[in-house]
From TrEMBL, chain A:
Membrane topology label: Multi-pass membrane protein
Entry's Gene Ontology cellular component terms: ATP-binding cassette (ABC) transporter complex
Record key words, sorted: Antibiotic resistance, Cell membrane, Membrane, Transmembrane, Transmembrane helix, Transport
Gene Ontology molecular function: ABC-type transporter activity
GO aspect biological process, one term: response to antibiotic
Protein name per Swiss-Prot or TrEMBL: Transport permease protein
Bilayer-crossing regions: 50-71, 83-106, 127-154, 160-185, 192-212, 255-275
Segments forming domain ABC transmembrane type-2: 48-281
Subcellular location: Cell membrane
Species this protein is from: Streptomyces griseicoloratus
Family statement: Belongs to the ABC-2 integral membrane protein family.
One Pfam family cited in the UniProt record for this chain: ABC2_membrane
Residues in the signal sequence: none
UniProtKB/TrEMBL annotation, chain B:
Protein known as: ABC-type xenobiotic transporter
Gene Ontology MF terms in the entry: ABC-type xenobiotic transporter activity; ATP binding; ATP hydrolysis activity
Enzymatic class: translocase
UniProt record similarity statement: Belongs to the ABC transporter superfamily. Drug exporter-1 (DrugE1) (TC 3.A.1.105) family.
Subcellular location: Cell membrane
């Protein structure tokens, strides 16, 4: 059972001396890049994870597009697909925070974050690298969702506006990273992180993703209209050149503005919370 | 550079609300040795290791690791230590090789050196065959060896092993012990926390016993065992009439006075050469035709050490310590 060759351990042929005279910023970026590389390697090794994450949005597209599609109304007229698809893109982004939280809770409960923190790397790169990974993955998810929508006959009509829509969707996803990191450090175990879906689902339903707020009871419609993800959905519809189903309330009339503002608000609230939670690890 | 001590802690304090996780804890670990930190759950072992490895801040006292102050020179300390905690802190999705390369790059070795070092460590920890398999498919022992390998990437001066064999089967435990011995042969200083006296006994040349956040004993394994009387050979005879003969046989191999326990038909005595004593006693009893119900070696347990040192038993049902 002599698993280890005693004579050779700890005598390395590799030069293990210090890394030379790079500055802190260099190493912050390098560490961040390595964390991103790790995150993307996960998807390379388990490509089916992307399918899991997109499963629900794609299923919803099919369900609402084909099964309920004919029964769904868009106030003021217009094609339900033009209403639904941008909403689906928003939902894909919105559910992303569960993904962020799941990875973070896994790393913190399995001791991986402790290992990172015991190493001479920049510990902020652990969080920053997670964020960049999530944005890269979000781009891929949006790409797949848009191709699915196009295959189902969705035809955006806004020219280059779609780039703006893409940007606003990513902007929303960026803000949700901090909620994900915060929750990931807050929940006690990966099993509990699974329960986040039960919270996320109603929060995304009470919005303008599937149904226009005017068609809901007054009070619910008001909540749905002020849901941050509704603004992104409405702004995306506008930028895709298919501004269907918009309402008359102030927040709905200023969707573009609010799609820019809401993520700032979320970041201002949750970024400090996430950072504080991370610092609390060393208490 | 640090008077021959790799780790030196003086009067460490750590409070969690009302609870004093560490309450004036002292520790001195000589360079190039394995030092055991022994104590029950909640005694403060993990808290001590987390302070020494810069993961949590101390509330009072001073600690130096590899000659550097853990509070003021945390970053420099991190470049000189390795840490293997209670969980195998490796990425389960990546392969063993990908794990070591990732950690190597994060240790700022650069891509090429990280790759070479990974190959080297996979070889040393006997993981070459499994190098390109996902860690999720590794056995507990393999995972722990990979964890150790990741801690060894920079060939650190000091390695912290926090209960490295908790939850492992005996075979995997043996593999980890082999690895630890090999590391020390290479010059690394190891601070090992454990709940098992046997583990500390097998690996450590010196043991600090910790209870309620304080060091309550610091001695060699033999010294600690002498404190509780060392190993004992124990014979249970079938008939009361055989007790005097059994006492005579046991006395021959013992360096102490055999004790009898008339109710339980039990004869026991301290021994040093454990295995020989046991076979000798078994053979002689058989030759003399004494009917034996049971025979065996009783080793002093952590419980015995604790009972002797503190007057209270270890309570294994205690919850994990706050920082665990």
């Amino acid at each position: 059972m002599s698993a280890v060759d005693t004579s050779t351990v700890d005598t390395s042929a590799v030069d293990l001396t210090g890394p030379g005279s790079h500055g802190r910023l260099y190493w912050l970026l390098a560490d961040c890049a390595n964390i991103v590389r790790r995150g993307l390697t996960h998807y390379q090794r388990q490509p089916v994870n992307i399918a899991w994450q997109l499963g629900f949005p794609i299923l919803s597209v099919l369900l609402y597009g084909y099964v309920f599609g004919s029964a769904m109304k868009v106030p003021g007229g217009g094609d339900y697909k033009d209403f639904l698809m941008p909403g689906m893109f928003v939902m894909t982004m919105a559910f992303g925070f569960i993904n962020t939280a799941t990875v973070v809770v896994y790393d913190s409960t399995k001791g991986v974050i402790d290992r990172f923190r015991s190493m001479p790397m920049a510990s902020s790169a652990v969080v920053a690298g997670r964020g960049v990974t999530d944005l890269v993955v979000a781009c891929a998810e949006l790409g797949i969702m848009m191709l699915t929508a196009l295959a189902m006959g969705w035809r955006p009509d806004g020219g280059w506006g779609f780039l703006g829509a893409f940007g606003l969707l990513l902007w929303l996803r960026f803000a949700l990273i901090w909620i994900g990191v915060w929750l990931g450090l807050l929940v006690p175990n990966p099993e509990a992180a699974g329960g986040l879906f039960a919270v996320a689902f109603p929060l995304t339903m009470i919005s303008s993703i599937f149904v226009a707020p005017q068609l809901m009871p007054d009070w619910l419609g008001w909540v749905a209209a002020w849901n941050p993800i509704s603004s992104t959905a409405a702004a995306a519809r506008e930028l895709f050149g298919t501004p269907v189903g918009g309402g008359d309330s102030w927040v709905e009339q200023h969707a573009l503005l609010m799609a820019g503002v809401w993520p700032v608000v979320l970041t201002v609230i949750f970024l400090p919370l996430a950072v504080r939670r991370f610092q609390k690890l060393s208490r | 550079m640090n008077d021959g001590y790799a780790v030196r802690a003086e009067a460490l304090e750590k409070r969690y609300g009302e609870k004093r996780a560490l309450d004036g804890f002292d520790l001195a670990v000589r360079e190039g040795t394995v030092h055991g930190l022994l104590g029950p759950n909640g005694a403060g072992k993990t808290t001590a290791v987390r302070i020494l490895s810069t993961l949590i801040r101390l509330d009072g006292g001073r600690a130096r690791v590899a000659g550097l102050d853990v509070a003021r020179q945390a970053r420099e300390v991190r470049a000189r230590i390795g840490l293997t905690g209670q969980y195998a802190a490796v990425d389960e999705v990546l392969t063993g090789r990908q794990n070591l390369e990732m950690f190597g790059r994060l240790f700022h070795l650069g891509g090429k050196r990280a790759r070479l070092r990974a190959v080297e460590l996979l070889e040393q920890f006997d993981l070459t065959d499994a190098a390109d398999r996902g860690v999720g498919k590794y056995s507990g022992g393999m995972r722990r060896r990979l964890d150790l390998a990741a801690s060894m990437i920079l060939a650190p001066a000091v390695l912290f092993l926090d209960e490295p064999t908790t939850g492992l089967d005996p075979r995997s435990r043996g593999e980890v012990w082999e690895s630890v011995r090999a590391l020390v042969a290479g010059g690394t200083t190891v601070l090992l926390t454990t709940q098992y006296l046997e583990e500390a006994d097998k690996l450590a040349s010196r043991i600090t016993v910790i209870d309620q956040g304080r060091a309550i004993a610091d001695d060699t394994p033999d010294g600690l065992k002498n404190l509780v009387g060392g190993d004992r050979v124990e014979v249970v005879v079938a008939e009361r009439a055989d007790i005097p003969r059994a006492v005579k046989v046991v006395a021959r191999v013992s360096d102490g006075e055999p004790e009898t326990d008339e109710d339980g038909l039990r004869v026991h005595a301290p021994v040093t050469d454990r295995v020989n004593a046991l076979t000798e006693v078994a053979r002689t009893l058989q030759d003399e035709g004494v009917r034996v119900e049971d025979i065996g070696l009783r080793r002093p347990s952590l419980d015995d050490v604790f009972l002797r040192l503190t007057g209270h038993r270890t309570d294994v049902s205690q919850p994990k310590e706050a920082a665990a």
